[in-house]
Inverse folding.
């Protein structure tokens, strides 16, 4: 299942990247709103590209059919990020410890300067190859991802507004 979404912000692209990567208040508020804890496992800069591995752990339990299919009570995954700030482009990929051959999620996040600030566009693809429930899982995960990005956009806008005063 492919998805695309965009959010507008009243700042230059570098300021937006700074909020989404390494802003403690952003992380704290995002965890409160989404019930997902994000912990950086590894971070390095190589040839101008920031590589990070982030462990994401949901505090909510999965619906019983999903939990059984995935073999976990709550959703835990690693997200591999490759951010090139000069190109304003992030490549991301979700890595599941279990079922990684059946569940794939990856995409890009780009930020483009505009006359009034910038626009962040997220394009992704989620595939769940599990008989009978794969399609429903794709829909649920895609909706959850989109909701999370929308909440992240709200928090970023609030932090940008507070910083401008």
């Amino acid at each position: 299942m492919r998805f695309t979404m965009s959010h507008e912000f009243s700042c230059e692209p570098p300021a937006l990247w700074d909020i989404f990567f390494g802003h403690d208040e952003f992380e704290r508020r995002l965890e409160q709103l989404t019930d997902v804890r994000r912990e950086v496992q590894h971070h390095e800069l190589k040839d101008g590209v920031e590589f990070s591995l982030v462990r994401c752990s949901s505090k909510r339990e999965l619906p019983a059919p999903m939990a059984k299919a995935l073999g976990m009570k709550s959703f835990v995954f690693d997200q591999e990020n490759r951010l090139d700030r000069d190109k304003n482009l992030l490549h991301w990929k979700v890595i599941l410890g279990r079922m990684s051959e059946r569940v794939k999620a990856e995409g890009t996040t780009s930020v483009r300067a505009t006359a009034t600030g910038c626009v962040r566009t997220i394009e992704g693809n989620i595939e769940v190859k599990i008989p009978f429930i794969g399609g429903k899982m794709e829909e649920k995960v895609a909706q959850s991802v989109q909701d999370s990005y929308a909440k992240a956009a709200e928090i970023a806008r609030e932090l940008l507004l507070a910083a401008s005063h």
Summary: The CA atoms of residues 8 and 134 lie 32 Å apart. The chain has one domain: 2-164. Helices lie at 13-20, 24-34, 64-70, 134-164.
